[in-house]
Write the structure tokens for this entry.
Amino acid sequence: MYNKSIMMLAAAAVIGAVSVASAQDAPFGNAEDTDYANKLWDVMVEQNLVGENSIKVRPFEGNEPHGAIQEVLATAATLDGHSGRLLVKRNHGGKEDLSVEEVYDDPIGNLVAITVMFKRESGYDTENQDWFWAKYLPSGELDKNPKGMQLAGRVAKGADEGCIACHTAAGGEDLETLTSK
């Protein structure tokens, strides 16, 4: 009886520790998010949205945090049996006097990051219209925030700055507008 009670207490402690750890997990950058982001990158490569053979689009002057010059592609994609709207923003920079023409002539050479929004299945993140966010380096590797967290999932959910905060504050019902177009 004594051993059984100790075992039950130990099991409860482990379950409690797992629950506390889960409650403290960030809303982004976990293994599930990074795995999903890696699969999303593969889909984008297949659709020629990123990589050496990516579709060429007309760049335009941008702003922070996305870079001095940007390119945007909007399409649909299917991942894990779910089809959703996909927005890919190629962020260019690296030199002070970078021009739209330079980026158009060499879209890979000045690429510093690729930021992505993918409309996931209903219930993924209802508060934020079910958008999945990711920021990749040109190589396809996920970028990280200053704390070393990979930028994939509900990036900066609940924070004063970051993907969700900025798009929520953009006005004009930014997230809903992006969904309906």
Notes: Residues 29-180 form one domain.
